[in-house]
Automatic annotation (TrEMBL):
Name of the protein in its database record: Helix-turn-helix transcriptional regulator
Gene3D superfamilies in UniProt: Homeodomain-like (1.10.10.60)
UniProt entry keywords in alphabetical sequence: DNA-binding, Transcription, Transcription regulation
Entries under PANTHER family matching the protein: REGULATORY PROTEIN PCHR
Positions of the HTH araC/xylS-type domain: 233-330
Amino acid sequence: MGMNFRGSSGAWLELADMPGLFDTNQPLVREKTEKYSLPFGDVEFRQIVLPETYIVFGDMCIRDRRLQMEAPDFRDIVELHFVLTGKGVITQHVANKPLVLAPNRQNMFYTPVFSGCAEYDPDVPYRFFEIHFTREKFLHLVQDCGPTLQTFCDHIIAGEQMQLSEQGIPSNSATQQCIHSILNCPYQGGLKLLFLQSKCVELLVLQAEAYDQYLKNNQKSALKSNYDRDRIQFVRDYLIANAVAPPSLSELAQLSGLNEFKLKKGFREVFNDSIINYVNEYKLLQAKEQLLSHVPIKHVAEELGYSSIQYFSKMFKKKFGVSPGLFTRDAQD
């Protein structure tokens, strides 16, 4: 039950199969990584299959700007899709409505029958993360979850195609951290299954929460054009590149060409976070990664621009509930 792709060469290829998703007689956690060098590009899929849940991380460098895609079988699944890098547009032939794929955005789909085309930016790798729940599993998880998901569920029950948003909704640092935890699960056996199942449900909760916030923020949007949204994305990329010594709000406004009000409100609309908190969260996640790689605490604090080890330790403990020293010792055990 995979997806077929066809580039300009004209040959259909089946990729990213979901083996035994509905088979209860399989091992509880199965993983595999597949790499392909194809006429239309190079792709890699890392797949994790749990009971009634399928996880995939994809890394694609597409040379053909336009691909044809189709699902050869009925796909009675709900997909949570997270764009990590790259951008593109997918158009399904039946609906004939474009679905915009943009970095740091997420969406939810129910597409039992799919046939369409996709256009990707050939200059930037398209990296994505997906969680697929079987229809029954999803409906069980979200029953009585309120109006946010009720309309979505009504379409699923009716067997009708549905998506949360045509443009996608913002992914925040909590979402990114949850994805990172899934891809770097430290457990084995039964604990691994419990951990991955809990994180998949956590991502579903975070997405529903993000959609609620997205609707509230966009009752009166500060961003009036695609240009405004592109400038907000530029600001985010600039902040990440200069996270050690981030620019002031006035400097960001001057760099982006947006006034400070539009910049602050627009950034929160797109990333569901304030500018300063987004940078702080990013730095702490980077600190965690460096500590896991056995970089000394003093070096981590200095490299990430903290004024002192004491202040870094305070912020780290506030975020993760444990001091950097204890975190490092636990990671080494």
